[in-house]
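Components:
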Amino acid sequence: MECRDIINTLAACLQEGGMNPGLASFVQILLGVVLVTLAPLIIVILLIWVERKFAARIQDRIGPNRVGPFGLLQTIADAVKLIAKEDIVPAGADRFVFNLAPIISVVSVILIWAVIPLSPIHIGVDLEIGALYFIAVGSIGTLAIMMAGWSSNNKYALLGAFRVVAQLVSYEIPFVFAILIPVMLAGSMGMQDIVEAQRGMWFFVLSPIAMIIFFLSAQAETGRAPFDLIEAESELVAGYNIEYSGMKFGLFFAGEFVHVLTNALLLVALFFGGWLGPFVDQVPALGFVYMFGKAALFYLFSLLLRNTLPRVRIDQMMNFNWKFLVPLSVVNVIVVALLLQIVRALGLAPAPELANDFVANLPQAVILLLGNLAIIAVVLNMLRNFGRSERPAEAAAIRKDEEMLPAQAAH
Amino acid sequence: MSVVNEWAFIGVFVAVAWIFPTLPVVLAAFVSPRKPNAIKMQTYECGVETVGDTWVQFRVQYYIHGLVFLIFDVEMIFLFPWAMAYNQLDFFAFGAGLLFLFLLTDGLLYAWFKGDLEWK
Amino acid sequence: MLELNPQSIAFFIFAAFTIGGGLGVATSRNLIHGALYLILSLFGGAGLFILLSAPFLAAAQILVYIGAIAILIIFAVMLTRSMTRLGEVYNRQWWLSALVGVGFFVLLVIGVILPVFGNLDPNAAPLDVGTTMDLGIALVDGNQFVLPFEVASVLLTAALIGAIVIARDRD
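Structure:
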């Protein structure tokens, strides 16, 4: 390896300067790690500001506007405040587990960043099993919530944690099934391979259903509305983090924000061509712009959903997952697998040397897209029939409740 | 990077990732005031004094949902290598994957029609 | 004989996690603490898989054991009433399980470790362990493992239905 640029070949540069090879590669790894770890933590400061401004505008307020230009430094002021707040650990709490939980919840999200491809040459580490790695690491976050709820010695926290964990594990199934599709299309679990495989055609075109399932279940995984039962203020006071205050609460908060951005980045990498864009091969740094630009759109869409949709009930949410998303994702995997075999049997699959060519990918893309649209049509029709049969019953139940009200008042 | 170096990166990453979230918590422990009293440390349950043990008994529902999740999780582990190698697989392999999925969906359908997935 | 390189240091760290976690599970009076120690132990196991160049198994270990089975164990603990704080040792057969554990260890030492101890060639070529891709092809190959693959599915379904029947509320 020769010394080319300072980040990717630092070890070679240091060796040229006369450093011991083992130490040089360790320094390179350490620098890479620190960069990848700090990136999400710095970005989150901006994200919190964006979210507060966005929510404020929707609610016809101004939002943070005092500290720094446009209130940009508000988050830093808040962080200082959180650090200076008294740290209250409730009586009877399990101190060690209680302190560990918020840290684990942030760590599990940061670890995902190791495999996110940010540009053609900038990725923490391009693991062979990248897709499986981020699923596995992300599932540790569930544990943090369980630990927080249990160690607080508070009934509401425990109830909240149990609900959340039931929600998170349930939505992990469609989440993982959706990831199966890009892996199948790219023939690899490495994140760079998945992005590279989209040079001819974005996977969003090949399987829009998988992308929609991924987005919805990611929304639920991060506890965003309409699935925000994680902080059901009206029912469970605040959910699993009720006893947390100060910086430890701040960590849960920061972890959630980073998670939303992380999921947006993963969505872009898996379905929207990641860092691919014009001239990215000549100027790799453009990859950052494309990657974060695309991800910002989905981040803002997620904010829009959060600020405009009401919360669903827990039974509705579980039904939506088990009786809609899970069957749909299984059917989607089967249909995509079948269509891929048919495309290959008909000789319509792009030849390996033409894999990056848009036109060569077109026949396969059209067939897969039509297959997906057929599923969508069938599903929408089923939902319409279901709605027709369900609505009169719901309306009757509401009428009955309303008739009961005056009768109760008389007692 | 060689395979060993890749995982060395992850190893260092796991170690370093702990530092940055731990730092503010440790800092807060030094900076923040500490004036505990019995009422402040009470469990917060809307101002009402807490009744009985916190570790109440939970419904079996949670366990059943966890169980279905576990089975699907194991299934996923089997399906990932299948999906990864799919470009090189023939129609027979598609049939094998289909049968695998079909058998597991059976379990889900059983739980569904027996009403075990209802959240009460 | 023992060479101190990054891999052997990593091995000892992971081994310490695995054994320490296991000891914690066996000695902890608090069931939830026991579950958390189990997670530590499993994490050490995942690290050992990585040192053995089996990253797929390591990811499976974290996803299935830490992400699913540990959660299930905690759910199961919470199903039982006031089991989280045991004051005394309820298990009267602890000596039996200790005996079985020691027995297995002796078996392992005699059967697996002693034959190769000291005979390993440090310069031997690494085993050709195959990739995840090979695994995917082998699992659905009619001449290789397609039958175990489908039987695994039947087994999982049977486990699911059986567990639901046992766990179901009888009211």
